[in-house]
Amino acid sequence: MRRAVFLDRDGTINVEKDYLFRSEDFEFIPGAPAAIARLNRAGFLVVVVTNQSGVARGFFDSEDVRRLHEHLQSELAAQGAAVDAFYLCPHHPEQGLGPYKIDCDCRKGHPGMLLQAAAEHGIDLEQSFMVGDKMADVQAGRRAGCRPLLVLTGYGTEDAKKLQPGEAVVVADLAAAVDYILQAEVDKA
């Protein structure tokens, strides 16, 4: 079984921009590529799990998301980093159009994307982490059995106010999350 760090995308890896799908609008949060490279070197699988309700709403399609993920991967490669897998939820329970208007188990705070990744990549969820900027990320991580971290980038500053004591570790950004994760591995050894 392998260890993974599940990462939310918008507001965690890249600057939050409503319904981002064009590569020319993509912008890393400072330090994110180096943080992902550190996870790669430490032997963690890096798995992006992202709610993309813009697909459900008809703002863009899954192919647009795929192209943006190719761009993200290319930008990471230029800095010696990589994402091992991408999972997306294209649904929304109220605002979706046609077949995308469903209450699915893949939309975070449900754990569906994490469980699917674990099954497909042999991931030990109890030895893995979920990092994101929203309560939905924390909930998905906890429900999957991962250790959740909430970053204060993106929506994190607001969502941190909703946390119950001990619900998640709160850190400044993805770089600080990786510091915490790598230190937790040292402390465990």
Description:
This protein has 189 residues and is an alpha/beta fold. The protein has helices at 32-41, 53-56, 62-77, 112-121, 135-144, 156-160, 174-188; strands at 4-7, 45-51, 85-89, 129-132, 147-151, 169-171. It has a domain at 4-39 and 49-127 and 142-147: 3-Layer(aba) Sandwich (Rossmann fold), CATH 3.40.50.1000. A six-stranded parallel β-sheet has the order 3-2-1-4-5-6, with helices on both faces. The protein starts with a strand and ends with a helix. GO terms for molecular function: D-glycero-beta-D-manno-heptose 1,7-bisphosphate 7-phosphatase activity. It is an enzyme of class 3 (hydrolase). This is D,D-heptose 1,7-bisphosphate phosphatase.
Q: Layout of SSEs?
A:
Elements: E1 4-7, H1 32-41, E2 45-51, H2 53-56, H3 62-77, E3 85-89, H4 112-121, E4 129-132, H5 135-144, E5 147-151, H6 156-160, E6 169-171, H7 174-188
Helix pairs in contact: 1-7
Concise account of the structure shown:
By secondary structure, the protein is an alpha/beta fold. 37% of the residues lie in helices and 15% in strands. Strands 3-2-1-4-5-6 form a six-stranded parallel beta sheet, sandwiched between helices.
Give me some keywords for this one.
single chain; Rossmann fold; 6-stranded parallel β-sheet; 7 helices
Shape: globular
Second rung of CATH, namely the architecture of the domain at 4-39 and 49-127 and 142-147 = 3-Layer(aba) Sandwich
What is the name of the CATH superfamily of the domain at 4-39 and 49-127 and 142-147?
A: HAD superfamily/HAD-like
Rg calc: 15 Å
Structural class category: alpha/beta
Order of helices and strands: EHEHHEHEHEHEH
Instruction: State the CATH topology of the domain at 4-39 and 49-127 and 142-147.
Output: Rossmann fold
For the largest sheet, list the strands in their spatial order: 3-2-1-4-5-6
Low-confidence stretches: none
CATH class of the domain at 4-39 and 49-127 and 142-147: Alpha Beta
DSSP strand tally? 6
What is the straight-line distance between the termini? 17 Å
Number of helices: 7
Per DSSP, what share of the residues sits in E-state strands of 2 or more residues? 5-15%
Helix content: 25-40%
Mean pLDDT: 96
Most strands sheet: 6 strands, parallel
Keywords: Carbohydrate metabolism, Cytoplasm, Hydrolase, Metal-binding
Subcellular location: Cytoplasm
Protein name: D,D-heptose 1,7-bisphosphate phosphatase
Family: Belongs to the gmhB family.
